[in-house]
Write a structure and sequence with these properties.
The structure is a single chain. This protein is of the alpha+beta class. The chain has a four-stranded antiparallel β-sheet with strand order 1-4-2-3, with helices on one face. Strand 2 and strand 3 form a beta hairpin. GO terms for molecular function: transferase activity. InterPro entries: HPr, HPr-like, HPr-like_sf, PTS_HPr_His_P_site.
């Protein structure tokens, strides 16, 4: 199992469009992947789960993966978040 903490940095947080990108990216991996905010853990491959976390800008989240490609999964999802979901230019 691998996990990393990352801050949501895009101005509007993890709203519908970046959540869809996040789920699509997570779906490329065979590992079980979770997104954790405070004490709530959801399946990172579920758009409804991600949206239920209501994650605004500045929130720290944990990405946790368990499986054959866990390291790649966590690293790629962290990079996606750090890029601002390629939605905004900083």
């Amino acid at each position: 199992m691998v996990e990393k903490t990352v801050e949501i940095n895009n101005p509007v947080g993890l709203h519908a469009r970046p959540a869809a990108i996040f789920v699509q990216t997570a779906g490329k991996f065979t590992s079980n992947i979770w997104l954790i905010r405070e004490n709530k853990k959801v399946n990172a491959k579920s758009i409804m789960g991600i949206m239920s976390l209501a994650i605004p800008k500045g929130t720290l989240v944990v990405i946790r993966a368990d499986g054959d490609d866990e390291i790649s999964a966590v690293n790629e999802l962290v990079e996606l978040i750090q890029s601002g979901f390629k939605e905004f230019e900083y």
